[in-house]
Design goal:
The complex is a heterodimer of chains A (195) and B (366).
Chain A lengths: L1 H5 L6 H9 L3 H23 L2 H17 L10 H20 L20 H20 L2 H11 L5 H8 L3 H18 L12
Chain B lengths: L11 H5 L5 H13 L1 H17 L11 H13 L10 H5 L2 H25 L4 E8 L2 E3 L2 E3 L2 E5 L3 E4 L4 E6 L3 E5 L4 E8 L2 E15 L6 E4 L4 E13 L5 E14 L2 E6 L2 E6 L3 E2 L3 E2 L4 H12 L4 H10 L5 H8 L4 H15 L7 H5 L3 H15 L1
Parallel strand pairs in B: 9-10
Antiparallel strand pairs in B: 1-4, 1-6, 2-3, 2-5, 5-8, 6-7, 7-9, 8-9, 9-11, 10-11, 11-12, 12-13, 12-14, 14-15, 14-16
Classes of the chains: A mainly alpha (195), B alpha+beta (366).
Amino acid sequence: MERLAIMTDRQTEAEIIEACKQGDRDAFRELFETHKDRVYTIAFHYSGNEAMAHDVTQQVFLKLFTSINQFHENSQFTTWLYRIVANACTDEHRKRRRFVPFSPEIEVRTMVGKSSQEETYHRRQVADSVRGAIGELTPKLRLPILLKYVEGLSYDEIAESLGISIGTVSSRLNRGHKMLARKLGHLRGEFASGE
Amino acid sequence: MMMFTKHVFKDLSAYCNGELAPEQSQRVREHLLACGRCRKEYDEIKLGVNLAKQLPLVSAPAQMWSEIEELLDERSRKPGFEAKVPRFAFAFSWYRLAAVSAVLVVAAVIGFIWFSNYGPRAAWTVDVIAGSAQIDGDRIGDKGSLAVGETLETGNSSKAKVTVAMIGEVVLDPNTLVRLVQTRMTEHRLALDRGRIYAKISAPPRLFFVNTPSAEAIDLGCEYTLEVDEAGRTLLHVTDGWVALMRDGREVWVPRYAMCESWPGIGPGTPYFEDASETFVRLLERFDFENGGDDVFKALLAEARERDTFTLWHLLSRVDGDQRVKVLDRMIELVGLPKGITREGTLRLDQDTLDAWKDEMDTVWF
């Protein structure tokens, strides 16, 4: 919903993509503005590294814009986009894994609404712990979690984006959730109410 | 009357995420009311879901669009009509002189670095982090140099860091004794006689080795700790990547989050995950190194959790006959028989089948 709200009223996603195929730079810009934060967020949480997130995001949009003609209307744009994101993350990770450690201590420019300073601080602490724990998951478990909780993709869409079966998505998420819970069991109290 | 239905572990994340069809969802809900084990699992997964939902959205850097636009422009730009500089003009220009000089400087620097790291008198830099350290019995200051054949020893409350050529570092804990055995382009080898080291290596596999009294640890791209006690027993704990532990032709690959012991005269035991229960680890030790009998074997299988199928998978090829059947039965009891894998192939130790097990278990183990 949020994603659609960002789109201008005058154009639907399909129209924007069609305009991109014609080489319309404004349409590219619009597509970029619509998806940039989620793409960046996934790359950032995947790598725990701002430089890599920056490079991956850049590569993703360059790839997107230079191969937009290969996108067919009968497939879903988000799954196509996130397949590019997943591939870029995996490739970059492969290239850098020996040299770039996950850095859970990085200060992030989060997009939070207005709230009290104490509340913001507390929420940031929890988010930092989650980020650190996600960084300790294997890449195979990390990507489905990010696609699910950053982009809100369905199991079907995650399966298509990652080129795996829905059963594998389900089992990887199961495993990922359990590992997060084990690593951050001390935060259980945070969610006691409202369940 | 109590209805016994199939456990719903595998559907719990999908259930929490509202991904199940209404009738499946209803089945899970009803099962959770009746099954304490699945309810416990559900609580864990629900917590994981709630935690994952806390991931913040991060805003992309503001200048990113202009960078992308620039790159797009670069790609679409056609070659212009700049006047070409004739080749001979470049041949006599000072640019060429500068380029040749730069190449020579770079070559000299590389040669110097290569010689100091791999030459016949190569030595590793030692930094004392805390307390004091000795090289070949002589106390060093804050820094020292460890040459091939020399020993480095830390005291009761000392710590020292050794820079391993250009491929990583090794930190020595207190009361640790190491010896530099070899350092050359194709092999860097340390001997750990006593104490504990932490190694972090960024190099192709099989370039960094550590000898201990009971095994040889081979770096396959990783981060790990290696400990040798007074009896010469080795304990490996891998925190990232893989390490192979080898002795007398027996090689055990230990992945991250896993540990493995090796005893003098016996060699490496069966690896296990760091979160395995103490009872499980003790039983495994008795089985591997103390000729634990059938009772130990049975207790070990009974103590295994889902994730310990990692250890059981390794055990498959260490035991035979009836014991192998029991190991496999316990694995199936814990995780089921994955699709496409046969009992027969597993019991035959067919390599493809064992590899398929490993692939299928990837998400359970890691």
